[in-house]
Amino acid sequence: MPHQEYYKMLSPEFKYVRAFCTEDDIAMAESIRKFVNKEIMPHRQDLEGGWHRDEQLALETQHALYAKLADLGVTKSNLPTEHGGLGLSPVVRQMVNEEISRGDIGLGTMVGKIHWIVSFMVAAKRDDLLKEFADRITGKDSWTACVAITEPTGGANLEDPAQQYRTIRTIARQDGDDYVINGHKIWPGPSGPAEHFQSKDLKGHLGYWTVATTDPEKGEEGVGLFHIPPDAKGMNFSKPYEKMGFCWTDENVDIYFDDVRIPKKYRIDTEPGQGSNLVRAYVIGLGRLAGAARLVGLSQAVLEIVLNATKHREIVGMPQRERSLFANYIGEMFRFIDIARQYYLSVTWQVMHPEIYGDHWSHEMIAKYSAARSFSADCAHFVCNRGMEMMGSYGYAYEFNLEKYMRDYKIVQMWLGGAQRDRLDIAQGLYGPFTWGGFDDWSKKQRLAK
Ligand SMILES: Cc1cc2nc3c(=O)[nH]c(=O)nc-3n(C[C@H](O)[C@H](O)[C@H](O)COP(=O)(O)OP(=O)(O)OC[C@H]3O[C@@H](n4cnc5c(N)ncnc54)[C@H](O)[C@@H]3O)c2cc1C
Question: Which candidate in 112, 136, 148, 268 could, as Cys together with 210 as Cys, close a disulfide (CB 3.0–4.6 Å)?
Answer without folding.
Answer: 148
